[in-house]
Protein: NB-ARC domain-containing protein
Organism: Cryptomeria japonica
Amino acid sequence: MEPTHVRYPQGSSSPYEKSFEKYYSQLDRYSREEIDGWKHALEQICCRSGWSLDMTGSFEAQLVKKVVNDIIKTLDRVPLQVAKYPVGLETVKKDLIQKLHLGSAQTAVRFGIWGIGGIGKTTVAKAAYNEACNDFDAASFVFNVRSTSLTKLQGQILKDLVNYEEELQSVEKGKYLLADRLRGIRALVILDDVDDRVQLDALAGHWLSPGSCLIITSRDRHILNTAHISSVCIHQMSGLEESEGLQLLSWHAFLRPSPIPGYEVLSKRIVQACKGHPLSLEIIGAFLYDKQNDTDIDSWNEILDNFTVNKDIFKTLKISFKGLSAEEREIFLDIACLFIGERTTNPILFWKSMYKNVRIAITNLSMKLLIRIDEKDVFDMHDLVQDMGQMVAEEEQTRQWQAAQSSSSSKNVSNISGLRLYKGDLRSLKMLGTPSLHYLHLEQVHIEDSIDNLPPSLRWLKVDSCSFPKTMHSSILFEEVILAMKNKFTSVVDSLPQLRIMDLTGCRSLQNLPDSIGHLSHLQSLNLSECQKLDCLPNTISNLSQLLYLNLSYCENLLYLPDSIGNLSQLQYLNLTCCRILIELPDSIGKLSQLKELSLSWSEKLESLPKSISNLSKLEMLDMLRCHTAWKSIPYSILILPELCLLGLPTRVMEWRWCKPSLTENQDQTEEWTTPKFREPMTEFRATLAPEC
């Protein structure tokens, strides 16, 4: 069958010819207009692009493979979000795409994009990726190379290109796997924001197969030279032309491609002052968005005066920061210094304990382009904006992130509200006893002091791989100190009346929690993920009347949940993923009237679900992936829950849910039943691997 046989169905060689002659001879049955319509439809189909055996040398198996691969590429590769207003992008993108085709099937090609921060390197790279990714066997865009661990980046490339999902333990193993697994694959790989030769060695070695393409973005031209990229294949990013800059500023300030009457001269002066720097234009434009009345002319002139005094990019960005409210400033600085890469849930709980309009503040920060929240609900921001925020925090000395040894030499700790200490020894916790300290993250720190000295103002305590003095207990593990010193732990709890969030992820020696945990009456989030020796929870857990989030994922030794868990009247999210020896849930779980999401995936020993689970009227998601036995005991009555989404069930259960259960002998078993909605699996509590405490 050839396309022409369909396009010309009455041609001499078309297999359709006799059929159409037959239909035309039966005009008493079919009208001529109907038959002509069929012919026209065949002609239209033939005008659409498709596949034919000629493309594969008449090998049918190769044609099937090509069709399947093309479909997979179309379905799997979701385009990256480039820019809300892609001004000046098309010309640069076309130039880069043309260079991509300079390569051949015998060689791999390398390209570089070079320019200062905020000039648009990542934006151009994303546009090129969207345009070219379907021309390769596989593609990977690796963001933020300079601020991410090398093993994680290697793992991302392997996952994107060959769906390799095992965690890498070393950079050397990652380099070996890249060379071994990617042999023969024509790949498009983009490394964004490279600033070190070590990164090139780990990620851009000689593993690229012929026909592949590597694109590197960097602020340092020397990095691109080190990557053996010829000068012909390096594109230097420059600022926007004045007309393009005016258009970009106008889109953000006026939501139109040109200034509104009366603001033409002021707009041009701002564009000239920004020297075509896209990020500065976007942020200043977003800042000026609601300042378009006659009385706001002074705001525009004030900004121009600031430009006259200095032309530093950081100080330009700081203009937008100064226009924030007090709450918005504090939230912005927290994100810049402490919460980049953090899911929004816990920080929002943290801020709500101190501020009134948290979500409004986050929305305003997002609208002013000072922060971003990605598709995974994670905080992010442009690295230049983050640098500006950290510079402000250092000037104000309100937030610190430093090695533990240097903390004792800090000039001023009285104003610190957020502190992250890592890798070292800390002689005294008394220096942390400032009335303003709300957030404390200790990572791989040996503390030579009593834990009782934690400040009462603390709202978020996060502990990763820390140790305490042997004089307190024969073991120096933090979780074992809590276990062995219940009386002292009670005093610790009593000294933290405002604690909202406790994160003990990865404390793998913790066997149980003391009863005094129930004294944390304001606790809203308790994360015990990967506490692999934890076997039970105390009954006093029921006293946590404000608890919203309870994460017990990967607690592989958890035997049971106490009946008192049903008293957690505010609990909305309960994660029991990979609780591998958990056999049953208590009937009291049906009392969790506010529960929205329950994850039981990979809890393979779970035998049944209590009938009371059908009382969870607000349940939206029940994840039972790999619960081979428990799914058989799902109560029929659970299907009346209006918002329920069931995930991870075997196919037979999916089919079963189309029919209403037979509760009496007289009921019709084939009566149609409403099928619950389906969506993506729960991601509220994402397990993160942490070193053993």
